[in-house]
Amino acid sequence: MSQIKLTYFDFGVRADAVRICLTMAGVDFEDERVAFPKLAELKEAGVLPLGQLPVLEIDGVKFTQYNAMSRYAATLAGIYPEDPVQRLKMEEMIEVCTELLYKVPFAAKDEEEKKALREQFASTKMATWFAFLDKRIGENTGDWAVGETFTLADLSIMILCDFLKSGFIDYINVNFHEDYPNVKALYESVKAYEPVAKYYASQQKK
């Protein structure tokens, strides 16, 4: 059996999909969670291939790039579609979620400018991307985002909404997703999905 270790901050977003998928797959892995100041120490030690987190280590080989890790873990969990078209639909949604997070304005000369930039972002690009996700979910005839079964797309959308709800990105409504009925319904379904709910319940006990 492979020895697997995931290293990231004690935070969701860029690692929870991997954590949840590995747990769903019944994989025994080391979930190393480090404090933010630890990142500088790890960089200095040269143990991070690209000087960033997360890092997934499998039998001594270190891998980077969150989406690649998520796809690997989702494959183990059996939530990565084999059908090429269904996979394309899933990948499209995952990339929309990823791009949305990367496009959030962070560089600003002061709080006033940051507030203006983020409010503009929320009312334009963010609204467009959420409307797109809402449309795609509504087009699907199954109960989930893609096809008839739970996939990594569902998990990615839930994690995106949870990140917004955390309030980490100030000046953007924490309940932004609730203006999009299909996204809102999917979010609630994923949170209630037994493997996901069971994972988060286990984290609260720690």
Automatic annotation (TrEMBL):
Domain GST C-terminal: 83-206
Annotated InterPro entries: Glutathione-S-Trfase_C-like (IPR010987), Glutathione-S-Trfase_C_sf (IPR036282), Glutathione_S-Trfase (IPR040079), Glutathione_S-Trfase_N (IPR004045), GST_C (IPR004046), GST_superfamily (IPR050213), Thioredoxin-like_sf (IPR036249)
The GST N-terminal domain, residue ranges: 2-81
GO biological process: glutathione metabolic process
Entry superkingdom: Eukaryota
GO molecular function: glutathione transferase activity
Stored Gene3D superfamilies: 1.20.1050.10, Glutaredoxin (3.40.30.10)
Full protein name: Glutathione S-transferase
Organism: Salpingoeca rosetta (strain ATCC 50818 / BSB-021)
